[in-house]
Amino acid sequence: MYNLPDMPSVIQTISDSYKKSAVVDVRSGDMVRVHQKIREGGKERIQIFQGLVIRTDNKGSHTSRITVRRIASGVGVEKSFLLHSPLVVQVEVTKRSRVRRNYLSYMRDRTGKSARMAGLDFDKEAVNAVRDEALEAELEAEEAKIHEEKAAEAAAKAEAKATEDAELAAKAAAVEAAHDQTKTEPDLPAEETKA
Questions:
Q1: Which of 14, 31, 121, 148 could potentially form a cystine with 95 if both were Cys, beta carbons 3.0 to 4.6 Å apart?
Q2: What phi and psi, each to the nearest 5 degrees, are found at residue 4?
Q3: Contact 61, 17 (CB under 8 A)
Q4: Which of 103, 58, 104, 53 has its CA nearest to residue 85?
Q5: Which residues have CB under 8 Å from 92's CB, separation 6+?
Q6: What is d(CA 96, CA 99) in angstroms, rounded to the nearest whole number?
Q7: E strand residue ranges, 58-183
Q8: Model confidence over 173-192: pLDDT tens digits?
Q9: Distance between CA 48 and CA 83 in Å, rounded?
Q10: Domain 7-130 has CATH 2.30.30.790
Q11: Residues in a beta bridge with 57
Q12: Rounded Cα gap, residues 142 and 133, in angstroms
């Protein structure tokens, strides 16, 4: 009917451009530590939020999201994190539990022993060893830039030191020449100097 471009593929390419190259495989029932960038004024710091993943949404999408719950000072706190967000630096799975649901809303009503979950054995290093190539390339480029700046700064310091040494050598030569000249001049008698 209409000669439109293949819209799902266009939308897919646009959404894929916002994805990180790799994220941790997080499931409901995991205990995670989420490292998040927090900007306060001109400063930027990393804040860690540790808790239980009670929900995972849109796993394959760039809007992939987890909801993490923890008890802070006796009050339940839930935070949602977009896994592909540039503000989420790292997600680290510390414990994995056996659950049969995706949305663990019943955990909101449980405290103490009733909130315990049966743990599963899993390879912690393999799950958490996720490399983001784009982030690594950016870090390498930043390190190379810092290295180049240090090399340029060292070259500038060496050049300034060389010019300073040349100036000092020229001054020393001038002083030595003046000293030699005063030695070669005959001493005049005191009467001639008074006139």
A1: 31
A2: -95, 150
A3: no
A4: 58
A5: 24, 32, 33, 34, 35, 128
A6: 9
A7: 65-72, 75-82, 88-97, 119-120
A8: 888 888 888 877 665 555 55
A9: 14
A10: yes
A11: 65
A12: 14
For 94, 127, 128, 129, 162, the CA distances from 123, given in Å and listed in that order, are 10, 6, 9, 10, 58
In Å, how far from its chain's centre is CA 164?
40
Query: How far is residue 25's CA from residue 181's CA, in Å, rounded to a whole number?
Result: 85
pLDDT in tens, 58-90: 887 778 888 898 888 888 888 898 888 888 888
- Which pLDDT score, from 0 to 100, does residue 24 have? 79
Backbone φ, ψ for residue 30 (5° rounding)? -85, 145
Angle at 135 between CA 133 and CA 140, to 5 degrees: 90
Residues in the chain: 195
